[in-house]
Amino acid sequence: MHAIAAYQYETLQVSVTENIATVTINRPEKKNAMSFKVVEELIAVAERVSKDKALRAVILNGAEGTFCAGIDLGDLNHPKNQAFAFWELVKPWQSLFQRVCLVWRDVPVPVIAVLEGYCIGAGLQLALACDVRISRPDCKLSIMEAKWGLVPDMGLTQSAFGVVREDVLKELAMSARIVDAVEGEKLGLVSHCSETPLEDAQALAAEFAQRSPDAVLASKRVINAMHQQSAITLYKEKMWQLKMMMGRNRKFALKKAKDASVEFAKRQFG
User: Fold this and answer.
1) Tens digits of per-residue pLDDT, 188-213?
2) Beta carbons of 14 and 60 less than 8 angstroms apart
3) Cβ(101)–Cβ(126) below 8 Å
4) Sign of CA dihedral 12, 127, 136, 54
5) Can you give the pTM of this predicted structure?
6) In degrees, to the nearest 5, what angle opens at C-alpha 83 toward C-alphas 81 and 86?
7) CA–CA distances in Å: residue 147 to residues 12, 47, 173, 266
8) Please, are residues 156 and 125 in contact by the beta-carbon 8 Å criterion?
């Protein structure tokens, strides 16, 4: 067994075939929602991938037909996690929630996301940090944080920059609208639509593996450098999220998600 796959994971399935790693978020009972344990294990796998010079590509997907339906709100809102989550937002460097997405931009091999079912909120921010996204046409995509009175704060300012047009990104983030992958491909959220996304991802990974691994790495690094953002943008994500969490309209957003007649208070921030 390959060293990376030999580790025991609670929330992931990891396999390696012909130096191509497949990392599967394995919480189908939660539609592969991203818990603190998923975050921890995804970062650990990415770090192990970065140290393994034999690996040629990574395929990232979700178990049983769903990529990731967002953050596990039950886990996030559990009292034992509140202080930890608050610290991640106030600390001056990259938060754990930003790192779980952006770490895939840093690994020295191409990362291909296979999207099925739902790719929402944290799931879409994770997918956008991958190098290529191959999706089933009926996959549902959304930057959904505004529905809950929040703002995307998992590295979207880095991962979407140069991938999705600014006006498109604003529209999706402000509306929290759900689109299917066919529309998502037109908008730049998805690289390719396919009825067999995993098979296509495997074929693309094998194609990458036919090239010099150093040339593939260099291409990733050079193209990523075209769209580098200041770390200040990541800090702004966190600061605005803190404002949203402590603001008066957050509670109205949660109520409005269940009752469309709920009215928001006047804008609190300038």
Assistant:
1) 999 999 999 999 999 999 999 999 99
2) no
3) yes
4) negative
5) 0.93
6) 105
7) 28, 33, 9, 17
8) yes
